[in-house]
Amino acid sequence: MSKFKLDEIDHQILEMLIENTRVPFTDIAKKLLISAGTVHVRVKKMEDYGLIKGSSLILDYDKLGYTFIAYVGLYVKDTSNIKFIVERIKEIPNVTVAHITTGKFNVFCKIRAKGTTNAKNIIFKLDEIEGVYRTESMISLEESINDKKRLMHSIFKDIA
């Protein structure tokens, strides 16, 4: 497949979809002064290229009572067991993100819990996974940045 070129219209479409994946194409078209068909074709091209991969809902976990966020680093005895360990992590629904990493930890996880007792139990489950010999936890006091558009804007500046 040839290199995919994005222009300012694509950039604006992506910005609106990042803000609200459910925004109707007709609304995007009106705002950009183009046809809804043009929006549809451009989004379809970005999907076909693999630039856009589906869409998702964002749950407000605070409203569901999961206000406690912690990050847990896992130290692994033998890195050849990483795949096994990640499969065990997937069995713990409160682990919402897990990365295989270099540096201090072998795996780095984000957990959501209802409070400290719930978080403690989740961390103990991580610590009990066969092959994990130690965990280290950090409590999130506040999420200061969660911006899906800043990097996109920077990328568009670089390619413009």
List the helices and strands and how they pair.
Layout: H1 8-19, H2 25-32, H3 36-49, E1 68-76, H4 82-89, E2 95-100, E3 107-113, H5 116-127, E4 132-139, H6 150-159
Antiparallel strand pairs: 1-3, 1-4, 2-3
Helix pairs in contact: 2-3
Indicate the structural class.
alpha+beta
Q: In the residues, how many domains can be counted?
A: 2
CATH architecture of the largest domain: 2-Layer Sandwich
Question: How many beta strands in the DSSP annotation?
Answer: 4
Question: Measured on Cα atoms, how large is the radius of gyration?
Answer: 20 Å
Low-confidence spans: none
Q: Give the ordered list of helices and strands.
A: HHHEHEEHEH
Helix content: 40-55%
Tally of separate helices: 6
- Biggest pleated sheet: 4 strands, antiparallel
Average per-residue pLDDT, rounded, comes to 93
| CATH fold-type name of the largest domain | Alpha-Beta Plaits
Largest beta sheet: what is the strand line-up? 2-3-1-4
Please, could you describe this protein's structure?
- With 160 residues, this protein is α+β, with helices and mostly antiparallel strands.
- The protein has two domains: 8-56, Orthogonal Bundle (Arc Repressor Mutant, subunit A), CATH 1.10.10; 68-139, 2-Layer Sandwich (Alpha-Beta Plaits), CATH 3.30.70.
- It has six helices and four strands.
- A four-stranded antiparallel beta sheet has the order 2-3-1-4, covered by helices on one side.
- Helix 2 (25-32) crosses helix 3 (36-49).
Name a few traits of the molecule.
160 residues; alpha+beta; Arc Repressor Mutant, subunit A; Alpha-Beta Plaits; four-stranded antiparallel β-sheet; 4 strands; elongated
